[in-house]
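Service request form, structural biology core

Requester: graduate student, group of Dr. S.
Request type: structure prediction, single chain
Budget code: on file
Notes: please return the result as structure tokens.

Sequence provided:
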Amino acid sequence: MSRFVKYFTSNLSEILAISLFLSTLFLTGYTYNQKVTTNSVDTLDLNPFVEPGFPFISTSLDARKIGLAFPDDNIASRALAINLGDSAYVCFDTDLLRWSVAWTGKFLPMVLMAQISYKDFFNKNNKVTTLTGNPKLATGLYAGWSKGEPVFEDIRPDPELKNQPKWGPIPADKGRWKGMYLHGEKVILNYSVGQTDIFEMPGKVQFGNETAFIRTFQINHRTEPLSLIAAEVRNADYSEVKGNIAYIYHGSKRDTVTALGIVRSRENSMQPRIKNNRYLSVLLPSSKNGGEVSILVWKGPSSKKAAFEKLCKKKQPPLPDFGRGGPAYWQEEVLTAGKLSPDTAAYVTDQLTLPLPNPWKRNVRIADIAFFEDGRAAAVTFEGDVWILDGIDRNLHNIRWKRFASGLHEPMSVEVVKGNVYIFGREGIVRLQDLNHDGVADHYENFSNVMIQSPESREWAADMVYAPDGSFYVAKGGSQSNGPGVTSQVAKGFRAGSDHNGTILKISPDGLAFEVIATGLRGPYLGIHPENGTLTASDQQGNFVPSTPIYLIKKGDYYGVPPTTHRKDNPSIAPPLTWIPHRVDRSSISQAWITGDNMGPINGDLIHFSFARPGLFRVLIDSSASLRQGGVSFINANYPAPTSKGAINPIDGQLYITGFNLWGSSSTGVSALQRLRYTGKTSYMPNHFKVTKQGVILGFDSPLDASSVTTKNFEVKRWNYKRTQEYGSGHFKLDGTSGEEVLQVLATHVSADGKSVLLLLPDMQEVMQMEVAYNLRAKDGKSVNQQFWFTVNKTSEFKPESERFDKVDLSILTAKNPLPGLQTSNNELASAAKGKEIFQQMACSGCHSEGTKTKGMYGPPFQNLYGSTRYFEDGSSAIADDKYVRESILTPGAKIIKGYNEEMPSFVGILTESDIQSITLYIKSLSKK
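Core staff response, request fulfilled:
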């Protein structure tokens, strides 16, 4: 704590200097006109997702049904939609290095997950992007470039599942996407074909009412001939090559032509070619000389041929000096003032106000944050922007936000490595570089796209962490079937997706290679210890995942989701470090290790992030067992929005937390950036535990009042889950019947230092979930009332002398004692009031509204539900009566309401008959309003 305070007091002069600098910025007009002190989404005025003046967005595009003249097998998972000006656009497929489609008129519809929720914050009804403009040119699923003769077939490896699309980049020795440079309104694409490096500037040229698309290349020394496929025309019956122009005619009277022209330049060796009256291509012979060359591609009336031929004789604008960087797209900074939390507990959350509003009326949904060595930070948003933050100090009064990059495809991870910013999105890992040091990225380098990506909406680029050996680990979401799909259904809740869906991959330090570390995951997110490289992951409860797990990741592990196995050796399922109950954390995200010595009792600990609760959990690991096992306790603090990811600031040593709302959280906040700050006050959380054959040892940060440590102040439960294809799991006793077992606490003992408690418990066995609830007092009189949830993978032998417990009588365990039994609260009378209490306790309120609200809710609202007619996805219907409510609670997958997905677990063994009756009465009461 003293080191934390010392930093800010010893740097007062620096803070004053920054304040003076900010005053200067206000006078010169480079700072937004007012300091932002609060964020209010209710009054937020946002511009459209696509910004005028910025030349591209990353996307996926399904162009399989754009007309009979075009290839019918044309879908791009990773692509750049580039604005060429005057309502002309091109989609460049970075996996196949081809122009997927070029068109005029309307731009793409904004229907992807980040786009459709950009203004409608809880809208999850995303669609597959299709073309709504006027298509002019297209190519099919084959590489746009090849060495030697053109190849009109997909050269990528076959997927593991037959009759599924191929995804991912072409083999690197054939061609590799290297990134792009931005220069004003221009985008310069960079890729290699074989050993030849190519820079390409897409553009358009108007002649009369016609639009021709121009591709200007800078191609240096090439040792072998290269071929470029420029367009495919399906319904043509005649073609010709006339000098430097090739024509393919189509239409009933050949009144339409698709033409390719070589623009005259010093490089006259390029040859237009046609194959099968269908493919327009260009041959580039090997050459020792390099330089710029251009081609024009056009579709239009045959009567305009002469004008096109004339156009091909005109010299086209050269590539700009893109290697030196271009003008900054965003010059203004946004100044915000955060809000400190009162020091009411050992750990509190300070709020770092987001730059909302901002000059561009841009939404800011923070997904992740990473720090530079000097304390500046890079933050990435779900809408694809990167911001640089400066001025983060103790008081958070003057935080400067500067936009650094944009156009990325649903990124959710950022890392800063040796001063470089790395972003992981659906396009892969992008390294951003500011070439002219104006504070805005000019070079979007493809650091790695070796991970395979499909366009399935839930196969998101979930997480990326940087390892001590210089490599990266990435986690990819499983291809869940909720939402529109482009691949086949392969299991309940899953589509085929790509061969890397539901996996954890290790990316080599140069970004060019990968190895599969673990498979069988549904929705993994990661954490890594930055010093020793310990890798952790969580998964999302759902089909095949009975509840929330946290894993210690080992290479070769399989985690139990059959559709994402990606193996044929029938692997065994690796156990988690711990399970977490649905009512405690129904939607988990990433983890972070507390490094340094500024966070008090949690220094060195693993922190787990809950999206749905929301909030943070302290993870404890019982390493005394031969098989590692863990448990979690909640860190009580104010969490105004979902908590997703976080990072330690190297200057103040505190944990900074990001998160945004979309997929169903108990929080209604849209996004927040917070600082978990250690105040120096006393902590009362559990800090270690150990499972023995005789019971459980639970340690605390502070000494306890021994008089409060009695058997009646503890309640211990245990249960198993069942892993099935259904969504989540009920609770089951060790004999397989439904329900939870209550273990009688036979005796309690307090350690010599007062900080540890031994609970002697009968019949200790391996079990998936245990819960210890306690109502104690600390030695200073503070109430200590919380729960601890853990998993028993293995029990060890209790040794009183080494655990500092005196006079422990273990014979009580062999005496006649009550066997574990069900809770005795089952006889409680049913009531609507009890139903409302259960509605909150079981986290039902995170998915169902008590009123009529549907935004942000995964399930239908409860008001007026009882007695109404319910319509289901299979076309059937039923009246919502007592029987229907009971079935919905115990077997929620039996009938899915039309317009909703199966995202509710069974409450078998969790709720008693009295509980179910209470919930039914509560729902009835809401229907009377």
